[in-house]
## 1
Amino acid sequence: MHLTYLEAIRQGIWEEMERDPTVFCIGEDIGIYGGAFKVTDGFIDRFGPERVIDTPIAESAIVGAAFGAALTGMRPVAEFQFMDFIGCAFNQITNMVAKAHYRWGAPAPLVVRGPSGGNVHGGPFHSQNPEMYFVHTPGLKVVCPATAYDAKGLIKSAIRDNNPVIFFEHKYLYRRIKDDVPADDYIVPLGEARVARAGHAGSVLAAAGGILSAQGQRRNPGNAKALGLLAANSEPRASGHATLVLSPYSRV
Amino acid sequence: MAKKHKPKAKHSGSNHRPHSAPKGRAASTTRTYSILDYRLEKPSFHLRQVRDGDTVRYEVTGTLDGAVPPIRDSKYLSKQQCIEIYRWMLLNRKMEAALENLYKQGKVVGGVYFGLGQEACSCASAYALVAPISTLGDLIPVLAGVALGARLQGKNIAVMTYIGDGGQSTGVTYEGLNFAAVQNLGLVLFVENNLWGYSTPADMQFRVEDLAERAIAYGIPGVIADGTDACQIYDAAHEACERARRGEGPTLIEAKMMRMKGHAIHDAAEYVPKPLFEYWKKRDPIARFDNYLVNVKKWLTRAEHEKLVAEVDAQLEADREFAVASPMPKPETAAGGTCCEPGCHDIKPKYGVPKVRTEKVSSARRAQAALHLK
């Protein structure tokens, strides 16, 4: 099927909810409204309000409650309406969720997902790329898919992972890119790099929206955790050069 | 022909109003609410900062000369249960005394935080519960989530967590309790008002007279209990847990007492006005319960009491020996374990496999484009 990046994510979450009764969604306006970006459109009709929970505007409570449910063996998918609001739950994510396995031996199999990135006339609170705060936090996995194919495979991997995963969906890509996405159950493993185009002079690693502005030799890592993705088989070691391109920030 | 019944849509939230709110008369312009208060004395005193020459210190005003009230008989506890709770309280107190000694001998790595004067609250409330407990404000929404997870797995459980007069000032407290309330989750929140958040008195943390009044704002029942009376604490906790297990949602219980040591071992708490110490020392929970069991109810003879104390001492001594004789953990063990690796944990639902809706919709609703992306 030829799906947009957004449809691929929707399909990935839907398939996981059908496959595993412990998966549920929690967030603001995700139920009858179907989500601000319509990622969960149709979910409440299919899965019921018990598994598609609309919350008050309380990001600490969204993540905290998702963490608590994860401790009972559920696999919550917590949506942030915009990842710019992730600061509202920063303490829950970095001090509670990220430390759970280290401190208590308690895995926290939850996914925190939402739209990030700019170039959409969203202003300062609807355009941010906050992923690096979480790349720096041990205990978390951070994912920034760059293609529709990756988006579906990675969200499925993220949901199945026993670790907390922060999943940044680039909103600029939501409906602007399409890919052939298999109808069957497939995953893209977290933490591996994929060569988008091979070259010789050096390596450019890009994630999410950065893909569109990367030049020369391109790599498509799919997820930022693998900045340890300068892994055994990667050519930067051979060529000696690597340039990291994320969604561009300009400093004035 | 029989009429087909449309199954009632299940609310995920609740439309419960505080059960104490009366239906207003049309002419009335004022609403009144009531808060259950189990205490047998209701002192009122306040702390404020005053300048005293070159220094600024705390001054306490109010009635501090009332007689110590009796223990209120529990509606639910048997003689055996009371004695058991007393044993736990004694163990609690003596363990902390042992820890203090060990700390002063340089044998403890890290800090020591005491609960002196609060043993009735911690022991009697925990005794009412069989399921998860925690003590951090940040864990209020988490415990709400535990109750949510259990409910998704088909079980109404009671979860209990504690927060202090200081900790309840955080935003996450509000968010977590509000979420539990609107979702009707079985969260029993014990607010341990021990009058001090580190060096900050309760009068500088909030303006309401009693924190239990905050329950009104969440739409849940609020209860005040004497934190130095084990029976009151148990009763309040028991009723709240039963309510939770019946699926009637959260309860906010405020336990009133005072922290009889500093915030931690390094804090001498010199900022606490002496009259306040004197007042609460007379209300020591262990002394009160001791008197109740031996002199009032005559459930323990002097000899039985001495035997009980000796048993607790012996148990503690054995534990202390074990701890002191145990080797320190190897430094290498501090590394690793940040991630759950493959094969590390096999996660299964704790209370049961969730029952899920299996019928598929005949056609998925056509997705509308989000306004943001137009």
Note: Residues 50 and 56 of chain B are 6 Å apart (CA to CA).
## 2
Amino acid sequence: MKENRTLTGLLFISPWIVGFLVFNVYPIVSSFYFSLCDYSVLSPPVFIGAQNYMDLVRDGVFWKALYNTLFFAGFAVPLGLFISLSLAILLNFEIFGRGIFRVVFFLPSLVPMVALAVLWQWMLNGELGLINHVLSPFLHAWNFLFKTSLNPPNWLLDAHYAKWGLIFTTLWGVGNAVVIYLAGLQDVPRYLYEAAEIDGANFWGKTWHVTLPIISPTIYFNTIMGIIGAFQVFAVPYVMAGGGDGPERSLLFIATYIYQNAFDYWNMGYACALGLILFLVICGLTLLATRLSRKHIYYAGK
Amino acid sequence: MGQRNKLLLTKTIVLVLLCLAGIAFLLPFAWMVSTSLKPLNETMSIRMHWIPEHIRWSNYPEAIVAMGDFWRYAGNSLFLCLMSVVGTVSSSALAAYGFSRIEWKGRDKIFAIVLATMMIPFPVVMVPIYNLFKHLGWIGTFRPLWVPTFFASAFNVFLLRQFFLGLPKDISEAARIDGCNEMQIFFRIILPLCKPALLVVALFQFLYTWNDFLGPLIFLTDQKQFTLALGLQSFQSQSGGTAWHYLMAASTLVILPVILLFFVAQRYFIEGISTTGMKN
């Protein structure tokens, strides 16, 4: 009877087992092997040992891609967390039009990435874009007051601002996280707030000592997913740069560099080495985040 | 200040902040639609204006023509969405059932592996997967984009398992006593009870396939097979950032189906996404 059950269980999950072997295990194992090879798809792979990894250490473009990826993730993930959590906390007040606001914040996260990139390329246009239309009166006022001569930046065409343009673009799509946080906030038991009020806590006290600890598992989960997502950023910057990597490669990310090596230069072995490095970085950061947050995450009943 | 006045003040501040944020979130949409209705010379005007002086509806049919085979792209996207929705719903539901409604040794350990695979980014595995499909002769066909969905996706298995676990154990036990086997319980009892959850998974997969860019970019080679997302990108890189009125009209057309879908199935969207965060 028991063996029977195991067999039935395995039969039910068999689609996943096949998918896991073919689309996860095989690619990771062969990726590791290819990363030790000179491999261009057209000819069979030739084993070259750690050569790809040695090239990688000396490849300035790789370090640029790694720096860009860390820069993007380092700003986009915390800012996204702050904005989505703040909006969710505001939405948790019982006020007029809550449902409408929730829809408004959520809609941008539905926009397909290519359309998102095209739209924001236009929003961030140096002369004609909405962002600079809105920004320039403020800059004029600033210039007048402080005798400076600042001009609105040419976002995506300026290596110093391109990544910030990308960060603003991604922040427009935080609505998904807002909905998740709001669901978490609505599960916080009322009596905890009442108890805090009796102890004389104000809004900030209640947020800091009740709300945040209770929803910490949700914050942790979202942050991990955010890190994983940010480290594989590809489509939006690729499309924004017109199918390239931006001025002075300012929009070159690790995933972009993997794509370029694999499908522009047909350097599959090198692309696999890059992929494994990306995987290790993501695993390392996830572990680090888990380690750091373990003390601060509150699980009900544990 | 009285307690009531204080509450009123707080609510007013919250409302003002929400309105400001709401406007900021809506403006890009408004700017997109506004540009999509302007003649070219008005999009090039340095002065910001929202309402076009000459509303130009013909931007839309002209953008459709300029994009190339717009309707074919739309058909390709729909075909891929349909196949991948069927694939992921059927395979993920089966797997989720095996991970939740049957108790067997090692089940939860294997499920931990399912969760771990969610951490593997596609760029990491795409080269070997590309080679695999190349050996099968599938590059330049739709197959690499839909066949894998028939082998259950970790995220959807996770989502459905959450719903399946929420159903009481007794209903399965009662059916077993009545002589039903697991397949019968799955099809006749669990699936009908979980229609909303299946709809959520179908919606998510539809969105994923409709939005996907990297997959079509590497697997499709012939312009006739392009999806709408790929068609839009190819149009953008060809028109080199000048024909903004057409680009915005085309973007509006790509976004519109998704927005409509959201309003039709709003409840399921919000429910589904809210469940995503409930994980220990």
Note: Chain A is about 70% helix and 0% strand.
